Amino acid sequence: MVCENRAMAAKKSTAKKSTWVTKKGLAQMLKGGVIMDVVTPAEAKIAEEAGAVAVMALERVPSDIRRDGGVARMSDPDMIKGIQAAVSIPVMAKARIGHIAEARILEALDVDYIDESEVLTPADDRNHINKHDFRVPFVCGCKDLGEALRRINEGAAMMRTKGEAGTGNIVEAVRHIRTVSEQIAALRGKGEKHLRNVAKEARVPYELVRVVAKAGRLPVVNFVAGGIATPADAALSMMLGADGVFVGSGIFKSKNPAKTAAAIVQATTHWANPQILAEVSAGLGEAMRGIEMRTIPEAERLSKRGW
Amino acid sequence: MAARSASSAKPVIGVLAVQGDFREHLDTLETIGATGREVRLPADLHGLSGLILPGGESTAMRKLLHRWNLVAPIRDLAARGAPILGTCAGAIILANRIADGDEPVLSLLDVEVRRNAFGRQLESFEADLQMRGLRSDGGALTMHAVFIRAPEILSVGAKAETVATLDDGRVVAARQGNVLGISFHPEIAGEVRVHRWLVNQARRTRIAPAR
Q1: Among partner residues A26, A32, A53, which is closest to B124 by beta-carbon distance?
Q2: Residue A136 is nearest to which of B122, B127, B188, comparing CB atoms?
Q3: pLDDT per residue rounded down to tens, chain A (307 residues)
């Protein structure tokens, strides 16, 4: 009987890959977790050991990119492969905004997610990548609802609010997640005419705005990124409605990366439990050195990249 | 308030909420009119009639389960008869054996699993399959299943039985009494019948008092 079923089924395989459900599904599995920037296989192992749900493989963490200046590009494929070989958790990698070729290379490397990232120097000042054209899923940054909807409309299967990467300063991240949440809340109970205007202003289909208004949330997972440096920063992000957090420079620029990484993981799970937050925040040593926002000229703000 | 036995009261189903797609499981429970509760600490397990271990990253879940001493009380809940469902990472957490060297976590399901057995994200897929073990008459249910960096059940031991395979014969679900481990995600496929099985099972079972 079973054999018969198998033989029948074998004639017509139903398997489908790289569907919208599988693309956004991986992000759903990462929720409540921490995605950590790593620059070497050794760091990737520390991240995995600490309980990271994924790592972002890149050549320099954002704070070093900020310090070094120049053009920041996709990482060397050998470096990405080294990290893929070192860990069993998903490995993400960054492509420049609009850089279709870098994205194709990362897809060929079998990365689990591509971050079309403002942390790298944009390659196209008019077009983001048409992410529907790819089999690999994408995560993109946003500062507000309109930007999130444009990226989702282009095929992003996961969002992250941008914050200001490489600063160790949470203030921009808070601004961005609050903005997205407030703008979604403002859609509640609004009629078709209002929603059509929102769609027109955001330059996205009405249907997408309608779906967000009805659900009261984005149709894809939304993490917070950019400036998270402590367990409390991660907990704050979760309190403001994040599905999870990206931590860039905050871990490997801290005094004690392994301990800081583990503490941020704990804080992301137990964000609503102040006793546990107090426990895991203790004795971590110095966090990364932060940067006050007003010392960063507008032109050097990474979150201004993309539109 | 009169004391009521777990079997007659409306069962409360816990969903492990240390990491992963626990919200989707809670939403699925709500869809079928069941009551769910997030579980992050041992105290959250008190009074539960069933438990779901969601999809997520098993390495992260493993750390959080050990760190907050959840392993022993979950094993105890299972031993007292409460139905336990593990999806994807949850199935890995349930397994007695994990290929390639990882230590087992709960050891409640007599199977050997391999993490990411189908490959990385580009190999994630959707497929239709037949699932047995849920209907009381032993019949199979046709199910649309979503596999995300999914584990495979490499072998099924004497105490467990295979309840679903793919077209090519690879095992993707196994059951051992009140414990069900599946490689795929009904909670993101709009599939409610697995959760309904769990809730019915919880309703039917008289959970022994906690030790």
Answers
A1: A26
A2: B122
A3: 444 444 444 445 679 999 999 999 999 999 999 999 999 999 999 999 999 999 999 989 999 998 898 899 999 999 999 999 999 999 999 999 999 999 999 999 999 999 999 999 999 999 999 999 999 999 999 999 999 999 999 999 999 999 999 999 999 999 999 999 999 999 999 999 999 999 999 999 999 999 999 999 999 999 999 999 999 999 999 999 999 999 999 999 999 999 999 999 999 999 999 999 999 999 999 888 889 888 998 888 899 898 8
Domains, chain B: 6-204 (3.40.50.880)
* Contact call for residues B42 and B69 (beta carbons, < 8 A): yes
CB contact under 8 A, B59 and A88: yes
**What CA–CA distance (Å, rounded) separates B125 from B147?**
5
Within chain A, strands assigned E span 16-17, 34-38, 54-57, 91-96, 113-117, 138-142, 158-161, 221-224, 245-247
- Whether B96 contacts chain A with CB within 8 A: no
Nearest CA in chain A to B19: A32
A85 touches chain B (CB under 8 A): no
Distance separating alpha carbons of residues A38 and A60, to the nearest angstrom: 8
Residue B164: which H helix or E strand, with range?
Answer: strand B161-165
This complex has an ipTM of 0.95
Whether residue A10 and residue B167 make contact (CB cut-off 8 A), yes or no, is yes
Its pTM stands at 0.95
Structure tokens at B89: 């990472």
Longest distance between any two alpha carbons in chain A, whole Å: 72
Q: How far is B32 from chain A (nearest CA, A)?
A: 19
Active site residue B195: no
